[in-house]
Backbone:
DNA sequence: CGCAAGATTGAAGTACGTCAATTCCAGTGG
DNA sequence: CCACTGGAATTGACGTACTTCAATCTTGCG
């Protein structure tokens, strides 16, 4: 049930059978959330931590002018907001994009897990630090790269993150996003997203078949987008020397 | 010595005299860092947590194309990277912009502080969650707002953050940044930063005298930049209804 | 089969970047 | 007190990556 999370955490630390069991127990309360439904809404004061088991969700903010800013994608194995309860209320929302299975972990349970001795708490910390590093890299991406490299960079990241939770098939993976959602993520119009994707396809960097995206040549895509995966702090894979 | 930090934390929780003393003791090892010098450099594996006592520093990444992306500003009272030691190595650098006094707090000491019972640990957590919320808001800002609103939004934030640590004088504060640094922050050319600032001045929103920036009418600047300070999770001040 | 939502296209506008010159200003040395 | 310097701010002219609008075409799905 919590396989993706475990797989992700084990990149960083070896978990004991007990650790695994603790996670299984914590994630018993599973709800299915339909596409376009919120998991948490701005101004909420949530009492649970949410773990995505299946499907894609997005962290987003609405801007007074009507724009939607997507701030992060949450895929299987991702925990949302381990410690938000410390803050008075949410300053953003989290919504399901596709149909999601989400485990609701009671705040108190989560606190216990984090306080346990051993590797589990450390590993979860590590994953939240990586989430923050991703946010920083997105900031670099939005403010400093052109549309084509920006999109390519994003694709590199989602490929590696999908791979880390066992959701890839060679170098292809499900990218269940509309071009409008991509635009809200990258700060681009849908028209420009469309043309830019065509461009990447024309360059032979990617291929898409429905919602499945195929990276034809990972090295070339990395090269093209100046992709340095160090911020994901994954072990083993994908070193990049510069 | 650690007054700004204490002042900031007390927005969130009442600290005991003992809490205050613990902070004082932890921040004994103070170093002066000159402008343009790094406090931590990418790929370092730091053993200390750094607390800015005086001056401005910036979190930044260099991009292969030679650009510098500024990801955050660190002002007095800001702690850098409470828990980076969990990750193998830094994925970005932190550099002093002006001359900075920085307290080097040994990792172990910091761990003890976070484990103590009572309000101090909670308050420090709160401040790191706010740092992350700031990062998200910056992402919104870069990807979804025009240059003039983007700059205005940034100025609103720095005004409130400066105010929270007692560095404002009415609605004016020191902004020791060059236009090039502003550009590296906002993803704009220096030329465009220059023209945009002139524009804000011409609209009567701000005035600058050397490195001191005066906000002429906070409400108007908030209005202009769609500024909603909820993400700073400050108590009391500056509610915004929409 | 039929309908929406999404993807694609074309044409025209604009907010920004680039390049290169000039002016301003704080600090330094005489 | 002034002249000199180098970094920062400012300006003008021009180029371009993106946006906007509005139409059409495609696709998944009841």
Residues:
């Amino acid at each position: 049930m919590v396989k993706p999370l475990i797989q992700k955490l084990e990149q960083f630390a070896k978990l004991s059978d007990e650790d695994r069991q603790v996670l299984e127990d914590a994630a018993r309360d599973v709800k299915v959330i339909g596409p376009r439904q919120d998991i948490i809404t701005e101004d909420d004061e949530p009492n649970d931590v949410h773990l995505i088991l299946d499907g894609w969700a997005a962290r987003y903010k609405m801007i007074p002018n009507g724009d939607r800013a997507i701030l992060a994608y949450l895929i299987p194995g991702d925990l949302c907001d381990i410690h938000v309860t410390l803050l008075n209320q949410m300053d953003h929302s989290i919504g399901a994009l596709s149909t999601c299975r989400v485990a609701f972990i009671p705040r108190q349970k989560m606190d216990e897990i984090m306080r346990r001795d051993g590797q589990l708490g450390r590993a979860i910390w590590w994953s939240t630090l990586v989430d923050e590093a991703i946010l920083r890299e997105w900031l670099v991406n939005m403010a400093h790269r052109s549309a084509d490299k920006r999109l390519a960079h994003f694709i590199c990241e989602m490929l590696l993150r999908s791979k880390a939770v066992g959701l890839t098939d060679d170098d292809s993976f499900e990218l269940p996003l509309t071009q409008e959602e991509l635009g809200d993520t990258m700060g681009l119009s849908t028209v420009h997203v469309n043309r830019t994707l065509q461009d990447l396809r024309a360059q032979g960097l990617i291929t898409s078949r429905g919602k499945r995206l195929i990276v034809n040549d990972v090295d070339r895509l990395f090269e093209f987008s100046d992709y340095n995966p160090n911020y994901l702090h994954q072990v083993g894979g994908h070193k990049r020397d510069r």
